[in-house]
Specification:
77% of the residues lie in helices and 1% in strands. It is mainly α. The chain has two domains: 8-196, MFS general substrate transporter like domains (Growth Hormone, Chain: A, Up-down Bundle); 212-431, MFS general substrate transporter like domains (Growth Hormone, Chain: A, Up-down Bundle). It has a two-stranded antiparallel ribbon with strand order 1-2. A hairpin with a 2-residue loop joins strand 1 (383-384) and strand 2. The longest helix is centred in the middle third of the chain and has 33 residues, at 224-256. It is globular, with a radius of gyration of 21 Å. It is a multi-pass membrane protein. Keywords: Lysosome, Membrane, Transmembrane, Transmembrane helix, Transport. Its main location: membrane. InterPro entries: MFS, MFS_dom, MFS_trans_sf, MFSD1.
Length: 431
């Protein structure tokens, strides 16, 4: 262990730069995840699209992101983070450019899908760098820092992006995003190194292959608490991915009469709260050695708070404050990964976490177009500058889905078995 520590110290700033590049890519992925929320009217107008179609256009990111979570782990083992992250950045750049220059809906679909393909690597790839170059006792801290940077990217995809779209137009702004991804890909290729002092030993040529990831997923799905995790995580994430990630900005514009930039700034309070709370809740859960109470508090809190800001007729400042509180409560979602890991064998941890993350991201793919479809059902025929306009009453009916999701998350938390922050399987308890 001493040699490893010395190797890390000898590397000096390099591990932090490599992690920073991986985290910058995760920042970019979150930026792209929420970017359509400030372009809803522009996209509806340019592509003559209804709410459900616009929701699907945004959700394609989530379809490809979620669908690739299991293969990404296998590809990282084979290619290493340097090649895979570089390739992913180039794919993201191509997707952003296609989206920016699309003259029809299908090219825009392809662009958003490719952005999701590139983004799918960011979380796991960045943490793979951290695991190789930093000691295990720093891993949780660095994971929290990575998540916080992702949320900063999401905030950047709200009010600052809205201002850029108002000034430059959405196509020019997305072209600039493509250029950023291209530069990031070059930096990843030049600086990132695959193997560090904490990398696991490479498998010898004559060593039998380990069971495939599908075997690990199958083993995880045999455990009921994995299904609890796959209900809790998506139902906690879906409301924010659908609301703050797409429909929150037009909701604030319609209900409170805000201009786009101000509406984006108000909605970003939810993302900011989520980013602030995630590492804090993770630390508190570890410190008190409890998962279930924090999961109950998070889901129950958001069930109540969402009903208040949706239907209590509060003034704008109170709604924005409750958006931030919603994000704070949603910090409890991060516990689902530790919870799922502790209820499964350690040798299946990668497959388990990949499957849970796939379910979480898949919720965005379902609920963004679902809200658009519900809005279309209540549409009263209003149009402005070629885009559909939905009334506050229509939003109120469609957004009833949000507290419904948090209610299901509360049910999952009630069904959760406490792990006391240790492996439930007796064969893994000593690890």
């Amino acid at each position: 262990m001493t040699g490893r520590a010395d190797t890390t110290r000898g590397a000096g700033w390099l591990p932090w730069v490599m992690w920073g590049l991986g985290a910058a890519f995760y920042f970019y992925a979150f930026f792209q995840r929420v970017a359509p929320s400030v372009m809803v009217e522009d996209l509806m107008r340019d592509f003559a699209a209804a709410g459900a179609i616009t929701g699907m256009l945004s959700a394609l990111y989530f379809y490809t992101y979620a669908g690739l979570q299991l293969p990404v782990g296998v590809l990282l083992d084979g290619w290493g983070p340097r090649k895979l992250l570089t390739s992913a950045a180039l794919v993201s750049a191509l997707g952003s450019l296609l989206f920016a220059t699309a003259d029809g809906l299908w090219m825009a679909y392809l662009g958003r899908a490719l952005i999701g393909v590139g983004a799918a690597v960011t979380w796991v790839g960045g943490l793979t760098i951290a695991a190789a170059w930093f000691p295990p006792q720093r891993f949780a801290m660095i994971s929290g820092m990575t998540m916080a940077l992702g949320m900063i990217g999401a905030v950047g995809g709200q009010a600052p992006l809205a201002a850029a779209v108002d000034t430059l137009g959405w196509r020019t702004t997305m072209t600039g995003a493509a250029g950023f991804a291209l530069l990031l890909g070059g930096a990843l290729w030049l600086i990132v190194r695959d193997r560090g002092p904490y990398s696991p030993p490479e498998r010898a040529a004559d060593e039998p292959a380990r069971p495939g990831i599908l075997y690990g997923v199958g083993q995880a799905l045999r455990r009921p608490q994995t299904w609890v995790a796959c209900l809790y995580g998506p139902m906690m994430a879906a409301p924010i991915l659908a609301f703050a990630g797409l429909w929150g900005v037009p909701y604030m514009m319609s209900t409170y009469g805000l201009p786009r930039t101000d509406a984006a700034m108000a909605t970003s309070a939810m993302l900011l709260g989520w980013g602030v709370a995630s590492p804090i809740v993770g630390w508190m859960s570890d410190h008190f050695r409890r998962r279930k109470p924090f999961m109950l508090m998070a889901s129950g809190g958001n069930l109540v708070v969402s009903l208040v800001w949706l239907y209590a007729g509060l003034p704008l400042w109170a709604v924005i404050a409750l958006f931030f509180v919603t994000g704070l409560f949603n910090g409890g979602m991060v516990l689902v990964f530790a919870f799922a890991r502790e209820h499964n064998r350690l040798r299946h941890a990668g497959a388990t976490l990949g499957f849970v993350n796939m379910s979480v991201m898949g919720s965005g793919a379902v609920f963004q177009p679902l809200l658009g479809w519900l809005l279309d059902l209540g549409w009263q025929g209003g149009m402005m500058d070629g885009a559909r306009v939905y009334s506050p009453e229509t939003y109120g009916l469609a957004l009833a889905v949000l507290p419904g999701c948090w209610g299901l998350a509360l049910l999952a938390a009630l069904l959760a078995r406490e792990t006391r922050c240790r492996q439930v399987d007796s064969e893994d308890r000593a690890v």
